[in-house]
Amino acid sequence: MTENFNNKAAVVTGAGSGIGRASAIAFAKKGAKVMVSDINTEGGEETVKIIEGFGGVAQFFKCDVSKSDQVQALMNEVVSAFGRLDFAVNNAGISMQPGLTADIDEEEWDRVISINLKSVWLCMKYEIPKMLEQGGGAIINMSSLAGIRGRGNTVAYSASKHAIIGITKTAALEYAKKGIRVNAVCPGLTESGMTSGLSQHKALEEKLVQKIPMGHMGLSENIADSVVWLCANTASFMTGQVIVVDGGETVA
Predict the structure, then answer these.
(1) What gap in Å lies between CA 115 and CA 11, rounded to an integer?
(2) Domain, as residue range, for 217
(3) Alpha-carbon gap, residue 45 to 125, rounded angstroms
(4) Residue 3 maps to a domain
(5) What is the mean predicted confidence (pLDDT) over 78-102?
(6) First to last CA, the chain
(7) Res 162 pLDDT > 60
(8) CB 84 within 8 A of CB 9
(9) CA angle 50, 55, 60 (to 5 degrees)
(10) What is the pLDDT averaged over residues 15-33?
(11) What is the number of domains present in the chain?
């Protein structure tokens, strides 16, 4: 029997598009109530409409995940609206202006680290106490292939994604006996908002796709399926793990 998430509640950051939207939809299709969060109001509200369109339950909460007060307010709102917080997907993130390590400026470094890394810590800071109050939960932090190997011209992005894996493993150790599981997902090249610009650079797109043994980019739904599976009871003995979803690129 397929496990359902009836009477469960999830929060997904960066849920206004791409992997975040696909994850929010996947949770809702399994019966969870979903708090859709994004800095982009239009995108977030569109995700809610999609969920409500098939009878799911969702609300939108605008949040800049690099701001402590806004993240705290988001987590408070989840519990206020749904009575609990079972699943959290810390997905919000940005790319960076390409540049060599010695060439990017400090402002760009701070921007990327704040939105990609500090935000994950802030989210966990306010998610974990909610989960402890109810005896457990599952947290998924969104890393990247750039979090497990080097990639030129992306020093701040790569640093943030490597660090997400570090804080995932640390939190997993700290809360393993308290019913909270913390895992990370590393998407490969995926059709999402971050890669939408590739369609204007066909030669580059083809070069990148050629590195993928399966021969095509992943879909946001492929990543969302892994996110939801990690939150299910079928993965109840998994914590501190890094799941790579990349069409085989890292083993090629």
Answers:
(1) 17
(2) 9-245
(3) 26
(4) no
(5) 97
(6) 35
(7) yes
(8) yes
(9) 50
(10) 98
(11) 1
In a domain, 1, yes or no: no
Rg (CA), the chain: 17
| Spatial distance between the Cα atoms of 237 and 143, rounded to a whole number of angstroms | 21
pLDDT at 199 over 70: no
Residues 6+ apart with CB under 8 A from 105: none
Q: Which residues contact 229 (CB under 8 A, 6 or more apart)?
A: 235
Half-sphere exposure of 245 (CA within 13 A, CB side): 23
Retrieve residue 178's tokens.
């308290």
Work out the burial of residue 21: count CB atoms within 10 Å of its CB; fewer than 13 is exposed, 13-18 middle, 19 or more buried: buried
Q: What is the DSSP letter of 67?
A: -
Annotation says 157 is catalytic: yes
Q: What's residue 1's pLDDT?
A: 45
**Of 60, 157, 163, 245, which is the active-site residue?**
157
Task: Report pLDDT for 204.
Answer: 65
Collapsed DSSP state (helix, strand, coil) of residue 153: coil
Residue type, 201: H
Instruction: Report yes or no on 155 lying in a domain.
Output: yes
DSSP 13: T
Chain centre distance of CA 175: 20
CATH number at residue 217: 3.40.50.720
Q: Once rounded to an integer, what is the mean pLDDT over residues 2-31?
A: 97
